[in-house]
Amino acid sequence: MGVIKFCPKCGTKMTQDRTAKRPQFVCPKCKYKEATKDVKIPVVKGRRRSAVRVVGEDSEELKPMPVMDAVCPACGNTKAYWWLIQTRGADESPTQFFRCTKCNHTWRVYS
Known about the structure:
Layout: E1 15-17, E2 24-26, E3 33-35, E4 67-69, E5 79-85, E6 95-100, E7 106-110
Antiparallel strand pairs: 1-2, 2-3, 4-5, 5-6, 6-7
């Protein structure tokens, strides 16, 4: 758990300066500095973000998409995967995409 320290001069919440030779607290308002005195400042590591996967023509291994009744314009199959993507402004409806479960033909419907 981190330590919260307030400046004894002006009462502002102090920040931790880790760039100094020895970590210290620094007041962002009046620049008052105080050594940490054996207080261990925890280092918080950020989570690594995973890459966003774009659904493309070669994504045959992706099967978690929902299936619905839709007639494929290429082969006439009656089942298709579907997903929504916001391709236009946030105040407009999203675009619905379909991919045939048989021939992998992909088409879109603007609603």
